[in-house]
Amino acid sequence: MARQSxxxxxxxxxxxxxxxxxxxxxxxxxxxxVLITGETGSGKELAARAIHYQGKRSNKPFIPVNxxxxxxxxxxxxxxxxxxxxxxxxxxxxxGLIAQAEGGTLFLDEVDALSPKAQVSLLRFLQDGHYRPLxxxxxxxxxxRILAASNxxxxxxxxxxxxxxxxxxxxxxxxxxxxxxxxxxxxxxxLARHFIAEAACRYNMTRLDLHPETLLWLNRQPWLGNVRELxxxxxxxxxxCDGPNxxxxxxxxxxxxxxxxxxxxxxxxxxxxxxNFNEAKxxxxxxxxxxHLIRLMxxxxxxxxxxxxxxxxxxxxxxxxxxxxxxxxxxxxxx
Length: 335
Fold this sequence. Notes:
alpha/beta; Helicase, Ruva Protein, domain 3; two-stranded antiparallel ribbon; 14 helices; 11% strand
């Protein structure tokens, strides 16, 4: 049953996965706002697409938007569009995302990343479905279903005054929880084989199976990046595989890793030994910052908002550091 139910990329046969599919089928039948929660990489957008394409709006647009990528000064312009002459560079009118989704679904991913100003703009629209394009002289009505997703604990953010309680209530009319991969049992191996078949087709290569040691290894992993992390790892191992089966083993013992780390430290000391104290200090600090940023990106699967929370920094400050070291978050996300 589950193997044949691969709607919009959702694949699995575990109990919690089938429970989620049943919830999606039920939610899709009601034209209500839905809040989709789950960890980074667990498949929240796939779940949103499944809700849309099983519902009555399936023949209308599905418009996804990453809220974390919308700057404060552009949020209203992106959502509501603008009229010609609304501001200096507005030589022509522009349709907003809400109008583009007319009759269909607007999917707000990472809704927890919206600034206070953006939250007010969204709340105003959710209250009655009306909006005014920037520079426009009349209100517009939109027939759009709103699906929102978050990988954070919105009730906790509400208590911390980091997310509006009234917006949370508006979004959480219905809720769907996407389970983490580590709770899905044999779905891990099922998905791994699916990703191998997908990669074999994409790169015109012979399809391989999983080595027995790989199956044991897969079940021991915490999969903090969930399905996205599994997909990236399996694709990489498949492409680099030289044997008849995809073989993944546990990494070297800590003692071996420490030796390598010591060698890297010795190399850094050698490289900085010819510098004066301040120059050596600056070089060491930059190496630390870059390595720590890469580690944060790996742990958050390229989600800048989540990485900022892990680091205890403001999202914009972390974004500036990523630009400083030319680190692209997209590299750490799923293909």
